[in-house]
Amino acid sequence: MMTLHSLLTVALGLALGSAPALAQYAPPPPPRPFPGFMNENLRSRDPYLAVWDVGGSFRLRYESKQGAGFTDAGSNWDFSDRPQDDTENAYLLYRLMPRAGFTGKWFAATLEGRSSYSYGDERYASAAPGQGLTERDGALDLHQAFVMVGNHKEFPLSLKVGRQELAYGDQRLVGHFRWNNNARTFDALKLRYQSAPFGVDVFTGGVVTNDHRNGNAANFQDLFSGAYFNFPSLAKNEIVESYLYARNVARGIVTDDWSGVPAPFRFPAPQDTYTAGLRIRSKPLAYGAWDYGIEALYQFGNKTAVFPATPVAAALTAPRLDLKAYALVLQAGYTWSDLTSQPRFSLIYSYGSGDRNPTDGSVGTFQNLFPTNHLFYGYMDLSSLQNLHDLRLAYTLKPRANVSVAFEVHFQALATSDDFWYNVAGVPRNFAGAAAGSGRGYRINPTYSRVLGQELDVVVGWAFAPSGQLEVGLSHYFRGDYIKESLSSVGSKDANYAYVQTNFNF
Fold first, then answer.
1. How many domains are there within the chain?
2. What is the pTM of this model?
3. Distance between CA atoms of 275 and 123, rounded to whole angstroms?
4. Contact indicator for 78, 68 with CB cutoff of 8 Å
5. What is the largest CA-CA distance in the chain?
6. pLDDT tens digits for range 373-432
7. What are phi and psi of 15, to 5 degrees?
8. What burial class does residue 105 get, using C-beta atoms within 10 Å of its C-beta: 0-12 exposed, 13-18 middle, 19+ buried?
9. What distance in Å separates the CA atoms of residue 357 and residue 246, rounded to the nearest whole number?
10. Rounded-to-integer distance, Cα 106 and Cα 109, Å
11. Are 480 and 449 in contact (CB under 8 A)?
């Protein structure tokens, strides 16, 4: 019987035999623009009904994880080969998102619901009574409900108020995270100014917590604010953007009764942290077949060194530590646009700083905020941009206009083995080899190798109809010395991941 490893090897060999090299995967577009069945019907009867948007989406995804990921053992035992650690999980995710919207000359409104379930998921079966999952929130909930006043063709200012998605740049720090069965929204107020020289979004609000019993409310003791600038006329060939984000979490948040909410959302660490960034990307075709991007980030402020398992009493008295952290993203790509299949090769390097001295009374770990991490650090969702080096080689092609194929490999290492390896949710892993540190709870042995391993991903997407897409993904993680050393007392193994997803728009 062919293993997942051998399947990946064969698939990669076939791809490299038919194309020159390994780019970021993007789902294929539909064969023709498709507004949805109800919208098509409304607009065919009366063109003036185009101001209404009535439709939605229905998604099914089957996932199988072996060795690591979202399993009953938890991320502390990812890659464990010990029999009692259940590192296998297979489940079916269902999501229905109906919506209705109106767009007038000066006024717009959107109402979007979400029903999400997980079937056969071992994490749910073993959860504490009343405690749900971030991917199983039950019957219909309110995903978005906002109004917008303004018209940028007529006036530079607009205002958007209500439950809404926030997504900026590549979504490395702020994204809607629609890969997750519940996605992410904020109860927020956003003011936008846009003119020819520059534009800015200024917003403030709170992230919505998936807790169906309590109406999926935002907790405004965790306040997220920001200003995101764009400069259309600053450079001829580049897109230039800058931003400043602030996350202010009151210490009193740790006493809130969120017993039905799973970690790490029960309470974040009390903090006043600020992130300043500059993002530069080349415009399409500005340099012919070449493209590039640079994003530099700096964090400052203070936060307490508490984690989801920290007792409330300790969290209430934990000292605030100075935060000084950094991140950097460099990427370059080349597209063979003269070929029918449009093959593209890209190289992306992502770095998030770690805490090299956990006992010095400061924090050096970059805080990943509210990202869509699934887009960047491997489709197995094992890492976030915290204490991480990630070198990504990607190759994509389109054998047909409605088919996309991607081959990617990630080479990953810790920035420092004095700090944790943080999972996709930003929660630190406390592997079996962790040793007690001074004043910081736990600390990974600094003598360990920093090499985490390599992840190999293959993803194929097919838009089989204007209303539907099919997607298949296979992944394998070759564990490195850091994982082997961390689990040397129990043994370790590589990890596999596979999924099949279909999405219908109506």
1. 1
2. 0.89
3. 33
4. yes
5. 71
6. 999 999 999 999 999 999 999 999 999 999 999 999 999 999 999 999 999 999 888 876
7. -65, -45
8. exposed
9. 25
10. 11
11. yes
Measured distance CA(217)–CA(222) in Å, rounded: 12
**CA-to-CA distance for 455 and 473, rounded, in angstroms?**
13
CATH code, domain with 363: 2.40.160.100
Distance CA 491, CA 43 (A): 62
Q: Supply the range of the domain harboring residue 274.
A: 4-505
Q: What is the pLDDT of residues 167-212, one digit of tens each?
A: 999 999 999 999 999 899 999 999 999 999 999 999 999 999 877 6
User: Do 188 and 205 touch, CB atoms closer than 8 A?
Assistant: yes
| Nearest alpha carbon to residue 99 among 139, 52, 61 | 52
How far is 269 from 248, CA to CA, in rounded Å? 10
Amino acid symbol at 373: N
In degrees to the nearest 10, what's the CA dihedral of 442, 448, 449, 453?
Answer: -50
Integer Cα distance of 299 and 324 in angstroms:
6
Q: What is the band of 130 on the pLDDT scale with cuts at 50, 70, 90?
A: very low
Structure tokens at 428: 């630190």
Compute how many other C-beta atoms are within 10 angstroms of the C-beta atom of residue 341.
16
Cα–Cα distance for residue pair 484/25, rounded to 1 Å: 30
Across all residues in the chain, what is the average pLDDT?
Answer: 87
